[in-house]
Amino acid sequence: FYWPPGEEAGAGEAIGAAAATIAVSDYRDFLDRFAPSEAARIEAARSALTADGTSFSVPAAVPDGAAYRIEGRRTATGGSVLWLFDISATVAGESARARDGARLASLTAVFETTPLPMWRRDVNLAIIDCNPAYAAALDASREIVLAEGRELAPRGGRDEALRFAAGAASGRRSERRHLVIG
């Protein structure tokens, strides 16, 4: 949106792709897309720009889920311009990462606090992580268990796990073992 010098109180002119992309006729129409609190925040920033030339960059979301970064700048001729950047994909990605992080934290807490030995293997079936109960069952620290690749049931260990995994490729398999700990 553009306001020529001295016309900052007006409705502004939609310039560039703004008019077609967001389908608005003027700045007031644009503000109407936002919740009242968001619109007030954007307008306060624009008012400061037109009053004393204070540039700004604010994120704002509309109820339909679209998100924008709105930047206000003074032009070389003394007018005011607002640039709109669609940041919807970025916001959605950050939200998904936050959800995934929360899920991972929850699963990590279960892994760490479960009193039963638990471990994870990589694609080569080497042990890459274990919980404290697994390390305690081997009377070692987690670091030693991982560095040395210690197995809880060394009788079969990694080689037997490899054979088991190779057979599992043809379908689902399970195995049960008994181990006395403590």
Characterize the structure shown.
- This protein is α+β, with helices and mostly antiparallel strands and 182 residues long.
- The protein is built from 7 helices and 6 strands; from the N terminus they run βαααβββαββααα.
- It has helices at residues 18-21, 27-31, 36-52, 88-113, 132-137, 142-148, 157-168, and strands at 2-3, 56-61, 67-74, 80-86, 119-121, 127-130.
- The strands form 2 sheets. The protein has a 4-stranded antiparallel β-sheet with strand order 1-4-3-2, sandwiched between helices. The chain has a two-stranded antiparallel sheet with strand order 5-6.
- β5 (119-121) and β6 (127-130) form a beta hairpin.
- The model has no long low-confidence stretch (mean pLDDT 81).
- The general outline is rod-shaped
**Beta-strand residue percentage:** 15-25%
Gyration radius, rounded: 30 Å
User: What pattern of helices and strands is seen along the backbone?
Assistant: EHHHEEEHEEHHH
- Ends apart, CA distance between termini: 73 Å
Q: Describe the biggest sheet?
A: 4 strands, antiparallel
Number of strands: 6
The tally of helices reads 7
Helix content: 40-55%
Average pLDDT metric: 81
Poorly predicted regions are none
Structural class: alpha+beta
* Spatial strand order of the main sheet: 1-4-3-2
Task: Please tag this protein with its features.
182 residues; alpha+beta; 4-stranded antiparallel sheet; two-stranded antiparallel ribbon; 7 helices
Short description:
This protein is an alpha+beta fold and 182 residues long. It contains 7 helices and 6 strands.
